[in-house]
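Re-running Hexosyltransferase to confirm reproducibility after the cluster update. Everything else is unchanged from the original entry.
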Amino acid sequence: MKIRSYGKVSAKWVPIFSICFFFLGMLFTNKLWAPSLESNNQLIAQHRREQELQIVSEDCNTKKKKAGDRDKNVMNEVYKTHEAIQSLDKSISMLQMELAATRGVQEKGRTDNLAVNSKGGASRKKAFMVIGINTAFSSRKRRDSVRETWMPQGEQLQRLEQEKGIVVRFMIGHSATSNSILDRALDSEEAQHKDFLRLEHVEGYHELSAKTKIFFTTAAAKWDAEFFVKVDDDVHVNLGTLAATLARHRSKPRVYIGCMKSGPVLSKTNVKYHEPEYWKFGEEGNKYFRHATGQIYAISKDLANYISINQHILHKYANEDVSLGAWFIGLEIEHIDERSMCCGTPPDCEWKEQAGNVCIASFDWSCSGICKSVEKIKFVHERCSEGEEALWNALL
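Result of re-run:
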């Protein structure tokens, strides 16, 4: 009996099985590699996007750089234009001031002390500084006390002008009555000392603002000076120290030098230094803007010319130091707080001199000048004077 074998496969089934196994293998392989291919495709796409973004970014940066360069060029042009305008403004300002000074010479300047040029016209005398000592008809003794102490006389006064360019004059106007006894007495004193600057001004204590304005206008028309100084006749001054101090500021075009203060605006009518226009300074109890105290102060040439040009529209307040500060408050100028211009009388100025800090000016705050100056100014001069050599050795 034959046993039937089940291990053999018919030859005709072999190709069929091979094809089936091939397709099964392909199906299995696709399932394994499909995620990997998909991941590679994503990486490729992401890399392409990054390259595109980089190209766009570089293009934007290039455009921004070009725009920045254009903006920079525009700003440079604007800056150059601004500088040109400023230079033009300065030139116009200087021309206006020169015109005003020339007009002042023609209208108000006296020609007796002026040099005459070859064309027959008048020109202002050159000077380093012009000092106007504010005085009154009743102050003859004060003037004599100043002449005997810090103010040179006679030939020394002329030498001071010629060698140092320092002009010192008592400034005073005239009385309300023409050719009065006061005017004649002053004429006699002027003939004796030749140290006055006569102003077209009616003297009066309450007219100090007007007198100050006229002084700067008249002095600027008469002298081409670098600085103009106003000082009261009851103040002691060291001229050499004053000149040396001003010389340090001669390179600055517009300076206002003095002991700067800011006192209260006095609205009550029964007090000294009452300000009738107190309401212009705000609420009651307010203080004035910063300004130089009136005993002594100095201004540069441009500011004196500014006063000369605008004298008819400059407002006058009750106090002349406030008026001067008001004229300058809105201008491009430098306020210099020089404390050596307001030293006290001995022992204050004496101690400072011993410490090597010679005072420009000395007075008593309580009296707005040296108390009983006729008697006391000699004592102040003995204790606080810089010495005669300091004036002649001052480097200007």
